[in-house]
Write a structure and sequence with these properties.
The protein has 2 domains: 152 residues, Leucine Aminopeptidase, subunit E, domain 1 (3-Layer(aba) Sandwich), CATH 3.40.220.10; 316 residues, Aminopeptidase (3-Layer(aba) Sandwich), CATH 3.40.630. It has 13 helices and 18 strands. The longest helix is centred in the middle third of the chain and has 26 residues. The radius of gyration is 24 Å and the shape is elongated. Bound molecules: ligand BES and zinc ion (2 copies).
């Protein structure tokens, strides 16, 4: 989608649909459209849409934003998604917004980003496998124009950054939604290599089954044993220009299908487990966006990818494996596979020189019970690093709520026959337990774990709907932008 920000009046712009957002304190429509029938009393309640000039080629949509004091980034993202849906109804290919810039440039920047993000995320579709040639489907929006009264140049830069991040999120969503017979570990590895070929500043390194074993990544090796699909340990490195500060480490769970293994899952919703690679997808596409934005920092991304299958060669409950950092783990539940592959990936990320790490993983069903689809669970060993990630979460609306670590939780991770066990007795504090387990593999470097099992799918906000959300891409890009700024 093309996105532009212009210092022009909305009426000067050619577009299939014009959008005028209004809070309850603003006049229903700006003067240039005042003569449109119905303009005077178009309602401004939040989410209220009024179409003026319904038959006119330049249709005009009044978009209610409600009380100005309640207007925030999330409301605007939602409003943008509503406008996009309306655009689809009228088969619009171009959309023009008039965005009031009342305050400082900073707040206008986030408003512009909200409109871009809400529009692009809402325009995501997954129809690759629909064979019918459906002429009735609405066309994709091709052009989004945002008219502002001031700061056009700065706001255009912000719009471009938002476009890049949102389109990367849509690519992650497609990876999430593609079935597991398409998105295999090899497919994710090929996507990583493709990203490296698209950006000169990105390089990819991929290990297969043999090398994973030879390197001593016993967790990834063990989980992959049950599958004929070759596991992949994917590493992407990004070296931004002028980056002389610290290195951001990103780790994403890439289980392309989680049957549970021998501790097999119930059949009813097993098909949903094609999304167990959501963390990995977010990490890969975030690196692509960071490279496209040419941010000035270094990134090392590690995505351990495998299927988790039951078979004659699968790992069995009670088996003991040795992780990359030498720690031993009793695998009491083969369905707690994510932590086994992440343990190796985190240890590898530390080995490669990351100074701070964020990992994203659809790790526990318990986080869905605790926080639903609104907040991801956040666990960290470092106050300052946690605060920084929390701020990116707030800014992007990819929310995260911190859960505690505690020596008593740590006790739960102790094994009887090995150093650690991979699942807590009686599933006590399942989400925190998993975080405490992962902490054993990051040495003491600042680390944040995001359990995205609840937020990766089925969030049902207007701009992402019930399917994949691409959770994490925008958060990680925002975090990288913050770090790049700090490094200056
Ligand atoms: N991939 C699942 C977690 C999950 C659940 C993701 C729901 C998305 C939606 C993970 O590998 C898993 O099965 N975790 C187990 C751990 C348990 C056996 C200790 C769980 O949460 O039930
Ligand atoms: Zn599992
Ligand atoms: Zn899993």
């Amino acid at each position: 989608m093309r996105v532009e920000v212009l210092q022009k009046g909305l009426a000067e712009i050619e577009a299939d649909l014009h959008v005028v957002p209004r809070t309850s304190e603003q006049k229903p429509v700006p003067t240039e459209f005042a003569q449109a029938p119905g303009a005077e009393d178009a309602p401004t309640d939040y989410k209220r849409l009024t179409l003026l000039r319904p038959g006119h080629p330049k249709r005009l949509l009044v978009l209610g934003l409600g009380a100005p004091e309640e207007l925030d980034d999330e409301r605007l993202r939602v409003a943008a998604a509503l406008a996009l849906k309306e655009a689809r109804r009228y088969k619009a290919r171009s959309l023009a917004w008039r965005l009031p810039v009342d305050g400082e440039a900073d707040s206008a920047e986030s408003r512009v980003a909200d409109v871009v993000v809400g529009t692009i995320l809402a325009s995501y579709r997954f129809d690759r496998f629909k064979t019918a040639d459906d002429d009735d489907g609405p066309p994709q929006l091709e052009q989004l124009t945002i008219c502002v009264a001031r700061f056009a140049e700065r706001l255009a830069e912000e719009a471009e950054a938002a476009r890049i991040a949102a389109e990367a999120a849509n690519r992650a969503r497609e990876l999430q939604q593609l079935p597991s017979n398409v998105v295999t570990p090899s497919y994710l590895a090929a996507r990583a290599e493709e990203l490296a070929s698209e950006h000169a500043v990105v390089s990819a390194e991929v290990m297969g089954r043999e090398e994973i074993s030879a390197r001593g990544m016993g967790g990834l090796e063990a989980v992959a044993k049950g599958s004929v699909e070759e596991p992949k340990l994917i590493v992407l490195r990004y070296e931004g220009r002028g980056a002389d500060g610290e290195t951001l480490g990103l780790v994403g769970k890439g289980v392309t299908f989680d049957t549970g293994g021998i501790s097999i899952k119930p059949a009813a919703s097993m098909h949903e487990m094609k999304m167990d690679m959501s963390g990995g997808a977010a990490v890969l596409e975030a690196v692509g966006a960071i490279a496209a934005l040419e941010l000035s920092l270094r990134v090392i991304a590690v995505v351990p990818s495998t299927e988790n299958m039951p078979s004659g060669s699968a790992i069995k409950p009670g088996d003991i494996v040795t992780q990359l950092n030498g720690k031993t783990v009793e695998v009491n539940n083969t369905d707690a596979e994510g932590r086994l592959i992440l343990a190796d990936a985190l240890a590898h990320c530390v080995e490669l020189g990351a100074d701070q790490i964020v990992d994203l993983a659809t790790l526990t069903g318990a986080v869905l019970i605790a926080l639903g689809s609104t907040y991801a669970g956040l666990i960290s060993n470092d106050e300052e690093w946690a605060r920084l990630v929390e701020r990116s979460a707030e800014r992007t609306g990819e929310l995260a709520w911190r859960l505690p670590l505690h020596p008593e939780y740590k006790e739960l991770t102790r094994g009887t026959e090995a150093d650690l066990t991979n699942a807590s007795a009686k599933r006590k504090a399942s989400t925190i337990y998993a975080g405490s387990f992962l902490e054993e593999f990051v040495d003491d470097i600042p680390w944040v774990h995001l359990d995205i099992a609840g937020t990766a799918w089925d969030v049902d906000r207007e701009y992402v709907g019930k399917g994949p959300t691409g959770y994490g891409v925008r958060l990680l890009v925002d975090l990288a932008r913050t770090l790049a700024q700090k490094g200056r």
